[in-house]
C-alpha cells in the first residue's frame, strides 16, 4: 500500500520523534487509538465512515502534537465527536463520556460516574475538539474513498 506522504515527510516536525519515541512505539500508540475508536464506534452503533474519519483525524492530530502531552482516549473521543458532526451522524456526548470513564477504570470495578466528573470530562472533550480543529486548520473535507478500480489498482 502506498502512502500519501513519504517517510521523511511524516517524520519532519513530528514532535513524537523529537521526544525519542521510536517508530515501533508510535505504531503501538496508533494501534491502541484505532482499537479504542473502533470499539467505541461499534458500541455506539456508528457507521464505518465515522470510524474512518475519526481514525484519520486522530492520526493527523498526533502528527503535530505529542502523544505524551495528551490523554489519547479523550483525543479519540473528541475525534469521534467531530467525525459525527462532519458526517451528520447523531452521537450523545454523554455516551462518549461514559465510554471514556469505563476505559479509565478498566481492569477494576467501575464506580458510578459523578456529576462533577462527567461535566469535567465533557468540558475536556469540547476543549480538545477546539484544539483538534485548530491543529487540522479546520480542514475536515477528507477524501477517504477512491473509485473502486483506482483503489484496487494500488494493491496490484
- CATH class, named Mainly Alpha
Basic shape: globular
Sheet/helix structural class: mainly alpha
Sheet-strand content, in percent, reads under 5%
Determine the CATH topology.
Cyclin A, domain 1
Which value, in Å, is the CA radius of gyration?
A: 16 Å
When the domains are counted, the total is 1
> End-to-end distance, in Å?
9 Å
Order of helices and strands: HHHHHHHH
Count of DSSP E strands? 0
Mean pLDDT: 80
Could you describe the largest sheet, including whether it forms a barrel? Answer: none
Number of helices: 8
Helix content: 55-70%
Superfamily at the CATH H level?
Cyclin-like
Structural description of this entry:
65% of the residues lie in helices and 0% in strands. It has 156 residues and is mainly α. It has one domain (8-144): Cyclin A, domain 1. The longest helix is centred in the N-terminal third of the chain and has 21 residues, at 23-43. It is globular and about 45 Å long. The termini are close together.
Amino acid at each position: 500500500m502506498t502512502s500519501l506522504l513519504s517517510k521523511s515527510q511524516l517524520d519532519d516536525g513530528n514532535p513524537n520523534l523529537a521526544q525519542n519515541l521510536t517508530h515501533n512505539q508510535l505504531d503501538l500508540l496508533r494501534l491502541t487509538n484505532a482499537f479504542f475508536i473502533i470499539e467505541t464506534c461499534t458500541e455506539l452503533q456508528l457507521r464505518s465512515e465515522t470510524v474512518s474519519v475519526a481514525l484519520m483525524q486522530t492520526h493527523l492530530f498526533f502528527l503535530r502534537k505529542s502523544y505524551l502531552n495528551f490523554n489519547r482516549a479523550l483525543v479519540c473521543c473528541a475525534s469521534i465527536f467531530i467525525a459525527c458532526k462532519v458526517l451528520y451522524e447523531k452521537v450523545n456526548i454523554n455516551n462518549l463520556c461514559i465510554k471514556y470513564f469505563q476505559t479509565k477504570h478498566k481492569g477494576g470495578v467501575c464506580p458510578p460516574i459523578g456529576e462533577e466528573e462527567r461535566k469535567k470530562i465533557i468540558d475536556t472533550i469540547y476543549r480538545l475538539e477546539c484544539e483538534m480543529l485548530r491543529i487540522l486548520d479546520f480542514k475536515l473535507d477528507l477524501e477517504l474513498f477512491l473509485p473502486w478500480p483506482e483503489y484496487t489498482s494500488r494493491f496490484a
